[in-house]
C-alpha cells in the first residue's frame, strides 16, 4: 500500500484547510463525530501530526469515508466503538475523502470505505468495504499482536502505563521539518543540506533531503511528460521529468526502468546525471523495498 510519495509530504496548503482542521466537520451526514482522543477527524493539514507522527507510538487506523457512502455509515460506528474500547492501544483517524482528496490520492483509494493501518509512519495493512464486527476485531487483534514489540505505545496502553519518553528532538531537524510543514521546500532542503555539510554520513538527513527534493518535484509533475519523453528518448531532461511523473502516481517500477534504459543509452555527464537522479529516488523508499532492490540490480548491470 505504500505510496510513491512519503506520507510526510501531505502538508498544509491553505489557511482554509488549517481552519477546517481546528474543528470537527459541520456536515450532519458524517457517519459519526469523534468523541475522544481515540477517534479523531484528520485533514490534509493535520495528517502529518495526527497520523504519521502518532503512528510512531501506536497504530493509527485510517477510515477513509464519504458522506454519500452507505457502507461507510455501517462501518464507521463499529470502528469508533472498538477504538474507544482499546484504551489508547490504537487510534482511529477519520478522513472525509471529498474534503481531503490528496489523502485519498496518496493511498490510491479506488472505493470507500477503505481502512488503512499506519505504523511507524508507513501503511502496513488495509481492507475495503464494510466488514462484520468479528472480522474487524480479528484484523485489529492480529495487527496489534504483530506490532506490539515495535511500537511502545501498544503495550503501554494495555498495561496502563505511560510510554517511555522519546529522545529530545534535534533542533536542526525541527527547523527543517517546520519549513517542510509550511511548504517551503527550498528552506527545508537548505536545512537538511546544512546538516549533511557538517555530518556527511547522517543517514536521516540524507533520506530526508531526498524526500524533500522528490516531493517538490512530484507536486509539479506533469503526466504529459511521459508522452513527451516517449517521443524523445534521447532527451535527458524529458526522461527525468517523466520518471518523476511515473513515480509520483505510483508507477514506481516503470519510473525506475525508464531511467535505467536511459543510462544504457547515454555516457559521460548525462549518464552520471541520470544515475544520481535514480539513486536519490531510491532514498525516498523504505529500506528493503523490493522495487528498489530490483532497480539497484538492474542499475549495476547497466553500469558494469
From TrEMBL:
<dbReference type="InterPro" id="IPR017937">
    <property type="entry name" value="Thioredoxin_CS"/>
</dbReference>
<comment type="similarity">
    <text>Belongs to the thioredoxin family.</text>
</comment>
<dbReference type="GO" id="GO:0006950">
    <property type="term" value="P:response to stress"/>
</dbReference>
<keyword id="KW-0249">Electron transport</keyword>
<dbReference type="InterPro" id="IPR013766">
    <property type="entry name" value="Thioredoxin_domain"/>
</dbReference>
<dbReference type="GO" id="GO:0005737">
    <property type="term" value="C:cytoplasm"/>
</dbReference>
<dbReference type="InterPro" id="IPR011990">
    <property type="entry name" value="TPR-like_helical_dom_sf"/>
</dbReference>
<dbReference type="InterPro" id="IPR036249">
    <property type="entry name" value="Thioredoxin-like_sf"/>
</dbReference>
<dbReference type="InterPro" id="IPR005746">
    <property type="entry name" value="Thioredoxin"/>
</dbReference>
<keyword id="KW-0676">Redox-active center</keyword>
<dbReference type="GO" id="GO:0015035">
    <property type="term" value="F:protein-disulfide reductase activity"/>
</dbReference>
<dbReference type="Pfam" id="PF14561">
    <property type="entry name" value="TPR_20"/>
</dbReference>
<dbReference type="Pfam" id="PF00085">
    <property type="entry name" value="Thioredoxin"/>
</dbReference>
<keyword id="KW-1015">Disulfide bond</keyword>
<feature type="domain" description="Thioredoxin">
    <location>
        <begin position="33"/>
        <end position="145"/>
    </location>
</feature>
<keyword id="KW-0813">Transport</keyword>
<protein>
    <recommendedName>
        <fullName>Thioredoxin</fullName>
    </recommendedName>
</protein>
Amino acid at each position: 500500500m505504500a505510496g510513491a510519495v512519503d506520507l510526510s509530504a501531505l502538508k498544509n496548503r491553505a489557511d482554509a484547510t488549517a481552519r477546517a482542521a481546528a474543528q470537527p466537520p459541520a456536515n450532519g451526514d458524517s457517519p459519526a463525530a469523534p468523541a475522544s482522543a481515540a477517534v479523531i477527524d484528520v485533514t490534509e493539514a493535520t495528517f502529518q501530526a495526527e497520523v504519521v507522527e502518532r503512528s510512531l507510538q501506536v497504530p493509527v487506523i485510517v477510515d477513509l469515508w464519504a458522506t454519500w457512502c452507505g457502507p461507510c455509515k455501517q462501518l464507521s460506528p463499529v470502528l469508533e466503538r472498538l477504538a474507544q474500547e482499546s484504551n489508547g492501544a490504537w487510534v482511529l483517524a477519520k478522513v472525509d475523502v471529498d474534503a481531503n482528496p490528496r489523502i485519498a490520492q496518496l493511498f490510491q483509494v479506488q472505493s470507500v470505505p477503505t481502512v488503512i493501518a499506519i505504523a511507524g509512519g508507513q501503511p502496513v495493512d488495509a481492507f475495503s468495504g464494510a466488514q462484520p464486527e468479528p472480522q474487524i476485531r480479528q484484523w485489529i487483534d492480529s495487527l496489534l499482536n504483530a506490532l506490539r514489540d515495535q511500537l511502545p505505545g501498544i503495550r503501554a496502553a494495555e498495561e496502563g502505563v505511560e510510554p517511555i519518553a522519546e529522545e529530545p528532538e534535534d533542533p536542526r531537524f525541527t527547523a527543517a521539518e517546520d519549513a517542510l510543514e509550511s511548504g517551503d521546500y527550498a528552506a527545508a532542503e537548505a536545512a537538511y543540506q546544512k546538516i549533511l555539510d557538517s555530518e556527511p554520513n547522517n543517514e536521516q538527513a540524507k533520506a530526508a533531503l531526498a524526500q524533500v527534493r522528490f516531493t517538490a518535484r512530484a507536486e509539479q509533475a506533469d503526466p504529459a511528460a511521459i508522452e513527451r519523453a516517449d517521443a524523445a528518448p534521447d532527451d535527458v531532461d524529458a526522461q527525468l521529468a517523466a520518471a518523476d511523473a511515473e513515480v509520483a502516481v505510483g508507477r514506481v517500477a516503470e519510473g525506475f526502468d525508464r531511467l535505467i534504459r536511459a543510462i544504457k543509452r547515454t555516457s559521460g555527464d548525462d549518464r552520471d546525471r541520470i544515475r544520481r537522479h535514480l539513486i536519490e529516488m531510491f532514498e525516498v523508499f523504505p529500506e528493503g523495498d523490493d522495487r528498489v532492490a530490483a532497480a539497484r540490480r538492474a542499475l549495476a548491470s547497466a553500469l558494469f
